[in-house]
Amino acid sequence: IHLIKDKDAIDDYLAKNIKGVSKQEAAAYRNSYKKNICIDMLRQGYHKSFSELLTLIQKWNAFREAAGPGSAIWHEKSLEEQPDKLDQLYHFLTGAEAAQRAGHYEKVYDNQLSLACSFSDPEDKWLRDYFYEQSYNTAQLVEIDGGKRKAQASVDMGLIQEERGHIMKAAELFEAFYRLTEGTAWKDKTGHTYTSLACHHLWRIYTLLADKMLENEEHQEAIKTLIKALKMAQEGGDIKMHGEAAYCLSLAYHFSGDHETALAVLITSLKSSHSFVILVAWAEHMQL
């Protein structure tokens, strides 16, 4: 028995001895799924996609090594061992590269966003964030949609920054989202207008910023920020959000020692929102 060690010899042998199998198909049986995808990318001239795929695989391996034995990621399959994810990467990376060659940046963005949305498992968060960042950068190059993709990319990145605890960066991105959506009729899949979503995000992020300021006893800065939060809540048209914003602002005035203004803010809000639940909460806090 002669062992066939050379890979080309193996491919030739399979092609000659298995009816209907070409040398290329024989190589596909021999190679790993990742290797076949990489070879296909290179054969079709998708060098950028090939490089990006390898970089992502290396990054995953680096995360695993850094986490070490006993970590959750250590027991997970590597990216190159997950054919479904490799298929997604192959399809959308090459789609993005083809669109980039043609100068269709809106399609580059769409492919990158599709990849971000494809990775919904908790262990794939780093991949999801990576492609949201890529799509954000690409969105800045899109000129044909009136800024809609820039707006979507801004809110996506804002949520990522908020999740990372970068509240100021998140606020800047949500403010950009608000500016880009102001006066538009754009809606998300649930039917909410982009403008109302922008107001909701800004109300929330301004409230978070003000909380930090109050912790540091920066009362006047907190009040200024909560006034902006109240404005967003009013514009957003959500009565509950409006009531909560007024409640937080009244508390900030109370903590600063301005009890009269605290009560005035609350009463004004109650007249416009009819949210008596907020009055009860405020009264309990003040122990009235």
Automatic annotation (TrEMBL):
It is found in: Cytoplasm. Axonemal protein which is implicated in axonemal and/or peri-axonemal structure assembly and regulates flagellum assembly and beating and therefore sperm motility. The lineage of its organism: Eukaryota, Metazoa, Chordata, Craniata, Vertebrata. One of its GO terms (cellular component) is cytoplasm. Keywords: Cytoplasm, Repeat, TPR repeat. It comes from Zosterops lateralis melanops. SUPFAM superfamilies: TPR-like. Its main location: cytoplasm. GO terms for biological process: cilium movement. This is Tetratricopeptide repeat protein 29. InterPro entries: Bac_ResReg_Asp_Phosphatase, TPR-like_helical_dom_sf.
